[in-house]
Design brief:
Radius of gyration: 28 Å
Structural class: alpha/beta
Distance between the termini: 53 Å
Order of helices and strands: HHEHEHEHEHEHHHHHHHH
Strand content: 5-15%
Largest sheet: 5 strands, mixed
Shape: elongated
Helix content: 55-70%
Length: 381
């Protein structure tokens, strides 16, 4: 006669708990993701994210070598929002700096500035701002508005003290380039092209290849004389087409729904994006060689996408982050893709302006592809 099995047993529960804990700790990759993602979020949001960037790179074009112009430049730097990194001699040099994104502001002090100031004719100083990211420049522009009242307070003394009375002795005009109205759509919508491609392509590639491994169809492919490079190209080629379909949909929506200008060459944009798409697909293929299941592939995709989104300048000003975070961001392809996309759409940049952001993506693509191919060869054993 069989003994009656108890409805609930702490012994059975204990055995099951021991089994589950052992299984959880054996899956080291999943456990590392569960611990690593919260730590990464804490570090990024706690230390790297800053919506009030300071020490923004600024170029100064001064045609007036006087004590007043030097005091103005010092006042800009003392505000903590500006960092003088260049002194172009011509307008074309200054234009190239702001078009390539090397500087965020151009300060132009006109000729005879000191003479006109002493005469009381209120000379005009021009400040040009790269407003493709209006959040990054908003606080700095607000600080500029106060400089004409305080910048020369130590110089306008004695016989010049009447000039310190209101109105201010000189005028500052701010010209917001590329996005005069400060519309966030002009910044966010183009950035969605790179962000959506990163999220979808990395995860789709990693999961698609891992799914074949789970179903056993990958073993049949490995048994054929197909080389690793051929397998990799064959796997990512269809997703390149999918990526371009996504780009077309977002571009059409950006132009017709959000009225984002397209000032540059769409052909050049397409050529640049193929490098970016291939880089993301190579990352996904690499994850597929590391993951043992689709769940692990998804986890690694999230682990890659999260810092890409936060450190690329998509949601938060890139130059507001500390140096170590900017170094990590420079290594991510999304950072350079966003600069290329916004540069072509909003600035009308050409190939020469985009090259500083093209070659880092090429290096990233080559490095990740090499890792993927090496890992793939290991799976042949």
């Amino acid at each position: 006669m069989n003994a009656r099995i108890p409805f609930f047993s702490f012994t059975r529960l204990h055995a099951l708990l021991v089994k589950e804990f052992i299984q959880a700790f054996r899956d080291r990759l999943t456990f590392a993701m569960m611990v690593g993602v919260p730590i990464m979020q804490l570090l990024l949001f706690g230390y790297a994210i800053n919506s009030d960037p300071k020490h923004l790179p600024t170029a100064v074009m001064s045609a007036d070598n006087s004590v007043f112009s030097r005091s103005l430049v010092a006042a800009f730097e003392n505000s903590d929002y500006f960092k003088i990194v260049a002194e172009p001699q011509t307008e074309s040099e200054a234009e190239k700096l702001i078009a390539r994104g090397d500087v965020q502001f151009i300060v132009m002090i006109p000729e005879n500035f000191a003479r006109d100031l002493v005469r009381g004719t209120r000379p005009v100083m021009l400040v040009e701002a790269d407003a493709t990211d209006p959040i990054a420049t908003a606080s700095a522009i607000a600080a500029v508005a106060q400089l004409n009242q305080t910048a020369l307070s130590h110089d306008l003394v004695g016989p010049l003290s009447p000039l310190a009375a209101k109105p201010p002795p000189f005028e500052i005009r701010v010209h917001s380039r590329y996005n005069p109205e400060g519309l966030t759509e002009y910044n966010i919508v183009p950035g969605l092209i790179g962000t959506i491609l990163t999220m979808t392509l990395v995860m789709m590639t990693a999961v698609a290849v891992t799914r074949e491994k789970e179903r056993g169809t990958m073993e049949n492919l490995l048994a054929t004389p197909v080389r690793p490079l051929e397998v990799m190209l064959g796997k990512i080629a269809p997703f390149i087409v999918i990526g371009y379909v996504q780009v077309c949909v977002i571009l059409l929506a950006a132009y017709f729904l959000f009225h984002v200008p397209i000032l540059g060459s769409v052909t050049l944009l397409s050529l640049c994006l193929i490098i970016f798409i291939a880089a993301n697909l190579a990352v996904g293929f690499t994850f597929s060689t590391l993951a043992k299941s689709q769940l692990q592939a998804m986890q690694m995709g999230v682990f890659f996408f999260l810092p890409s989104m936060l450190l690329s300048g998509f949601l938060f000003p890139f130059r507001g982050m500390p140096d170590w975070a900017q170094t990590i961001g420079e290594a991510l392809p999304l950072t350079h893709a966003l600069r290329i996309i916004r540069g072509i759409l909003l600035k009308g940049n050409g190939f020469a302006d985009l090259w500083p952001n093209i070659w880092p993506m090429l290096i990233f693509l080559a490095a990740v592809s090499a890792i993927a191919l090496r890992r793939y060869r290991q799976t042949l054993d």
